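Quick one, tokens below:
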């Protein structure tokens, strides 16, 4: 059975009519005009998504707007659906930007991803002051009901719970876990499924190619399944660098999650080329890296990416996509965390004020070598 047919079977009706038919139209146009783009190249394999920021949602970044329409068939909101922006005070929702985000996706027939419902970070301040578990449970419930309900049948996929695990695979001591216990996770999935039964529901996290954290996700998913709640996918964030994680660990992760019967997605892909402060001696997981701001060793390419590093970046992207293509029937979406290097969050994280080069389009919105590199991977599979 072709992967396209498999994807149609797992997809809901709306998805089928709006996206697959659209893809067929693209195929037709493609053969006529010979337009090459990421979304056309991989349209039988997986969605190609981008996270977009507020300026881009509002259409204030005209170059990004052109690239978004031409190259991508899925969008994720980089920040605007997060708790601190969308429910800044209890039961006071600000849907102005998120409405525009969803409308933009619909206008362009895109697969629309809601990021994220339950996450310990970028939370509203009042959440941190709650000490009563009933109150916390009510807030979580009303938040999920409000967001999923408003965009029912319109946001196709939700990152229901984000980053619930520690590096060793145990549950993170978030405000949700400490007040509600482990069940908060399956309850979040249950609520989202109740409000929009057709939405794709995802658990999303980083460092999932590390064995201990990967094992933690496997247990988490099995637990949700055992208790009869609905979970459709695991999102591997994929904030990677030139050497890490190793390809064989990425492959093990794809296979391990797919074995659970869920879709595998790469939800926040970018490849940092800068020194990684966590690799320095004596640094712990939650370190604040303010001390490195302005340190030229930690920001070695402030003006231009040297050719030798560009070559490494291209090779890394080629290897990553060769692997994705090998397992395309298990992978439903690959989303880049941004469109161009200019607005990547990696210019300011984990050290502020650096110049990073993690994406396929440079600061002038031009294609980097990695762009053609990944398209060529696809072409090679066709001969
Ligand atoms: C990041 C955004 O890109 C930044 O603009 C923001 O300042 C912090 O959050 N994992 C996630 C994303 O799930 O929501 C984070 O996005 C990156 C790490």
């Amino acid at each position: 059975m072709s992967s396209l047919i498999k994807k149609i079977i797992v997809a809901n009706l709306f998805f089928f009519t709006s996206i697959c038919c659209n893809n067929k139209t693209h195929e037709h146009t493609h053969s006529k005009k010979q337009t090459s783009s990421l979304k056309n190249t991989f349209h039988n394999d997986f969605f190609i998504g981008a996270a977009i920021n507020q300026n881009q949602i509002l259409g204030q970044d005209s170059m990004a707007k052109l690239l978004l329409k031409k190259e991508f068939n899925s969008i994720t909101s980089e920040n605007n659906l997060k708790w601190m922006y969308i429910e800044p005070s209890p039961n006071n929702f600000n849907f102005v930007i998120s409405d525009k985000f969803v409308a933009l996706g619909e206008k362009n027939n895109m697969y629309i991803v809601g990021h994220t419902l339950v996450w310990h970070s970028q939370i509203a301040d009042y959440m941190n002051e709650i000490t009563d578990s009933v109150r916390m449970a009510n807030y979580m419930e009303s938040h999920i009901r409000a967001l999923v309900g408003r965009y029912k049948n319109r946001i196709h996929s939700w990152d229901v719970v984000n980053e619930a695990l520690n590096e060793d695979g145990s549950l993170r001591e978030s405000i949700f876990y400490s007040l509600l216990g482990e069940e908060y996770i399956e309850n979040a999935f249950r609520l989202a499924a109740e409000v929009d039964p057709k939405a794709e529901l995802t658990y999303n996290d980083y460092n999932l190619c590390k064995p201990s954290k990967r094992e933690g996700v496997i247990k988490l998913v099995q637990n949700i399944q055992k208790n009869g709640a609905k979970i459709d996918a695991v999102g591997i964030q994929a904030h990677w660098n030139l050497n890490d994680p190793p390809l064989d660990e990425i492959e093990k992760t794809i296979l391990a999650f797919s074995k659970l019967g869920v879709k595998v997605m790469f939800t926040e892909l970018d490849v940092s080329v800068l020194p990684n402060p966590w690799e320095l001696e004596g640094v712990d997981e939650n370190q604040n890296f303010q001390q490195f701001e302005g340190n030229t060793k930690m920001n070695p390419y402030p003006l231009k990416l040297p050719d030798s590093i560009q070559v490494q970046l291209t090779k890394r992207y080629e290897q990553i996509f060769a692997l994705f293509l090998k397992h395309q029937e298990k992978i439903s979406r690959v989303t880049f965390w941004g469109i161009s290097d200019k607005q990547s969050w990696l210019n300011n994280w984990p050290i502020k004020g650096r110049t990073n080069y993690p994406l396929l389009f440079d600061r002038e919105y031009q294609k980097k070598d990695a762009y053609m590199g990944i398209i060529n991977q696809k072409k090679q599979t066709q001969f």
